[in-house]
Every structure is written in structure tokens, then in C-alpha cells.
Design goal:
Blueprint: E1 12-15, E2 20-27, E3 31-35, E4 48-52, E5 56-58, H1 61-66, H2 77-91, H3 95-113
Antiparallel strand pairs: 1-2, 1-5, 2-3, 3-4
Helix pairs in contact: 2-3
Length: 120
């Protein structure tokens, strides 16, 4: 189907009409609701807009990194705490603890920020 949104909520995309990095927050068949990345402190504090599927492309790793985004970063307090724990475990030299901390961070990201497995 031409013009169908294939990006899941939580995905970072580029709105080519505006040349802006955005995070998908919801989708319909041919439209995505987007918001600027970063921490949300309350309703309506981050600019949101809609874009047609044909105006979107997946953001590259370099584009996400240039915006200061880690692969699972959303700005939520739990993401920040899990990332700190992941970094501490990686620096400690225990591969099992580092692997478990990384898994916890990614699992939180998937559950809480992509709408999969009962998250938001």
C-alpha cells in the first residue's frame, strides 16, 4: 500500500518537509504524529505535528547521535538511571553485570517507549 506509515511509536525519523528530527508518538494508516525529541515535563511542552508517510524517512545513527540521542534515550528519568547503571557496570569489567544492565535498559526502552508489550 503506497503511503503507509511503517514506523513504530518511539522510532526517530526525519520529516523531510521540515528537515527536522522527530520521534513517532502514534500512527494511522498514512500519517504519523511526531514530536521533537527530548524530555517531556508535561502535556504540550514539546512541539508536536503530523506528517504524511511519504514525508518521513528513518533517522540515521549519525543523525540521532548528532542530536545527542542514545539508541534508547527518551529523556525519561528511568532511562537516565538505567543508562547510568549500564555505564557503571561496563566500567566495572564484569561482563555479566554489564550485559544485564544493557538488557535492562533496552527492555525498559521497548516496553515503556515503543508501545510494545503493554507499555505506553
Amino acid at each position: 500500500m503506497l503511503g503507509t506509515v511503517t514506523y513504530r511509536p518511539g522510532t526517530f525519523v526525519i520529516d523531510v518537509r521540515r528537515d527536522r528530527l522527530a520521534q513517532v508518538i502514534s500512527t494511522t494508516d498514512d500519517t504519523a504524529r511526531l514530536r521533537e525529541p527530548g524530555p517531556a515535563t508535561g502535556p504540550g511542552d514539546a512541539p508536536e505535528w503530523e506528517a504524511h508517510a511519504s514525508a518521513l524517512r528513518l533517522a540515521t545513527r549519525a543523525e540521532r547521535a548528532a542530536a545527542g540521542l542514545a539508541p534508547y534515550e527518551s529523556g525519561c528519568a528511568k532511562c537516565v538511571a538505567l543508562d547510568a547503571a549500564r555505564r557503571a557496570a561496563a566500567g566495572g569489567g564484569d561482563r555479566t553485570k554489564a550485559g544485564n544492565a544493557t538488557a535492562a535498559a533496552y527492555t525498559h526502552w521497548i516496553v515503556a517507549h515503543t508501545g510494545r508489550w503493554g507499555g505506553n
